[in-house]
Amino acid sequence: MSAGPEGAGPESAGPESTGPLAGVRILEVGHMLAGPYATMMLADLGAEVTKIEPPGGDISRQVSASYFASLNRGKRSIRLDLNSEPGRARLHELVADAHALLVNLKPSAIHRLGLTYDALRPWNDRIVCVALTGYGLHGGDDPAFDYVVQAATGVAALTGEPSGPPGLPGYSAADNSSGLTAALGLLAQIVSGRGGQVDVCLRDVMLSQLNYRAAAYLNDGVVPKRLPRGAHSYYVPAQIFPTLEGHLALFITHDGFWKSFAAEAGVAGFPTMADRAARREEVLAAVTEALATDTATSWESRLRPLGVPAAAVRTLPEALAATPEMVVTAGDYRLIAGSVRIAGYHPDYGPPPGLGEHDGPDPTRTDKPS
C-alpha cells in the first residue's frame, strides 16, 4: 500500500469524502477522550476512521450518548476481542490496508495486544503506529487521567487565585491537547512516507505547553507563581477585571494597545511596557477604577473597534449563541464543528457509529452482533 491517499479507494458506508484526508485509512483502539478526539479531527478532514471496540464497547458509551457523539462522529465501528486469536487475526487484516493505527491504552496493554509498530510491521511495514499514553510507551502504567496529569506537571499549581487552593480549568485540557498532538504526529509520519512508531504522552504535552514559564525558570531561575485574576506574568494589564456588570478579559501586550485603551478609558501615565511592569499594582488599580464605570459588554464594544484585545467573560451558552456557525448537526446530535477550515471543503459531519455497526460478515468473529 502507499504511504498516502494516492490511488486509495476506501470502502465507506457513505459517499466518498472530498476532504484533504480522503483515502487515508486510520484505525483507532481507544477510549474516553484523548485518542477518540484525535481521530475525530482526522475524520472531520475526510479520513476514514474505523473505531475498533471491545465486545462491550468504548466505556465512554456508558457516560452519555452525547458525550460519545462529541468524540466519535463520522467514524465506523467494529467489535473485536483483541485478547482472542480470531480478533487479532482480523486486526492484522485491517492493518494490512491501513495508513495508521492510533492506540490510547496503558503501555502494558499496548505491548500485550501487539499494537506497536514492531509487532504489526509483518502485516504492513509502512503503517504509522501512534501510542497515546500517560507517561510514554515505556513509562509504566501509573494512572494518567487529565486532572492527575495537570497536577503532576505544575499546571494546577499555576491555576487559581494566589490566596486560594490550586485550580483546574473547566474542561479536559490535557486530554484535548494530547489529542491534537497525537493527530499532528500521526500526519507527520504519514507525510514522511515511512512507517514507524510515534510516542505521545499527556505528561510531555502539558510540560511542553508551559514553554515560556519553563524557559524563565530553566534560564533565569524564575519560579512561576499564581497572580490575582489569572494575570499574565509579563504583560500588564493582562488579566480578568471586574466591571460595573460582569467581568472583562483585557490583554494589553504592547504600547500601542495601551495608548488606545488609556485614551478610551481616561487613564493617564504608564506609557511603556517596562513602566507598566515595574508599577504593576498602580496600573491595575487605575485600570480597575476605570473599568468599574461601565459594563463588560459595553467595554468590549468600545475597545474592539480600537483593536484592543478585550472580551466580556461569557458562559458557554452565551458563547455558543454568539457563534451559531460553530454548531453543526451530526445525525441526531448538535455538536461543535471542527476547527480547521480548508478552502473549498465543507465537512459532512456523520453521526457517531452504533456499537459494531460496521462489523459485517466475518467468519473469524466470536462475538456476533445482536
UniProtKB/TrEMBL annotation:
Compositionally biased spans, kind Low complexity = 1-17
Q: Which domain of life is it from?
A: Bacteria
Asked if Transferase is a keyword of the record, the answer is yes
Q: Where is this region: Disordered?
A: 1-20, 347-370
Q: Where is the composition biased (Basic and acidic residues)?
A: 356-370
SUPFAM superfamilies, A to Z: CoA-transferase family III (CaiB/BaiF)
Q: Gene3D superfamilies, per this entry?
A: Crotonobetainyl-coa:carnitine coa-transferase, domain 1, formyl-coa transferase, domain 3
Q: List its EC numbers.
A: 2.8.3.-
Q: Which UniProt keywords apply?
A: Transferase
Query: What molecular functions are annotated in GO for this chain?
Result: transferase activity
Q: Know the name of this protein?
A: CoA transferase
Instruction: Say which species the protein is native to.
Output: Streptacidiphilus jeojiensis
Q: What is the lineage of its organism?
A: Bacteria, Bacillati, Actinomycetota, Actinomycetes, Kitasatosporales
